[in-house]
Amino acid sequence: MIITIIQQIVLGVSLAAPVGPINVEMLKRGIEQGFWHAWMVGIGGMTADIIYMLLIYFGLSSFFMHTYVQVFMYSIGFFLLLQLGLSSLKQGISQKEMKYIKKEMGGIRESFFSGFSIALSNPLNLIFWFGVYGSTLSSLLTKVDRTEAVVYSFCIILGIILWNLNIAFSVHFGRTLLTQRSLNYITAGAGLVLIGYSIHFACKALQLFI
């Protein structure tokens, strides 16, 4: 049992660790507004992850496998990430001094919904949850009962939590070691990465549509 729990936690870390839109948004918010804003982006993303996990658990995964649903998700992801990317790029190249100003980006609540929206509209999350997690759940249900499967499933969320805490703390404390110019470069770079992801999503949506 302990080995299975560790495996699921590692799976959660593996999901959260690759550089993706959520990580980039956490980095940007952490630089601009500190630990709690970065952490709330992660909480928002995890909330969307839990929703996907519950949908799979209750057998609704087939709906999200339809092509038109995936096209819609890619399209929403494109517009959302493009908006966030352009905003970040503009702020990075403006050379303004970055301070912890909560009102500037709408406060804690907006940070949460930013993470939630990115994760919910990110088709890469669909691939993981309905592909990797779906097959993992099927395998677990052949060995354990449904209650144990739920416990193991939330161990994946625990892995995501641990990684997001790592990012939030690292950005919060590492920020004080960076110069103002470095912070601007990082913010602009984060914007370019988000724009890159938005273009990738647009291409995927176009391929599926065609």
Description:
With 210 residues, the chain is an all-alpha fold. The protein has one domain. Helices cover 81% and strands 0% of the residues. The longest helix has 30 residues. The N and C termini lie far apart (46 Å).
Indicate the proportion of strand residues: under 5%
The helicity comes to: over 70%
Mind describing the biggest β-sheet? none
Number of domains: 1
Number of helices: 8
Radius of gyration: 18 Å
Features:
single chain; 210 residues; mainly alpha
Briefly summarize what is shown.
The protein has 210 residues and is mainly α. It has 8 helices and no strands.
Secondary structure layout plus pairing:
Elements: H1 2-16, H2 21-33, H3 35-57, H4 67-93, H5 107-120, H6 123-141, H7 146-174, H8 180-209
Helix pairs in contact: 1-7, 2-3, 2-5, 2-7, 2-8, 3-5, 3-6, 3-7, 4-8
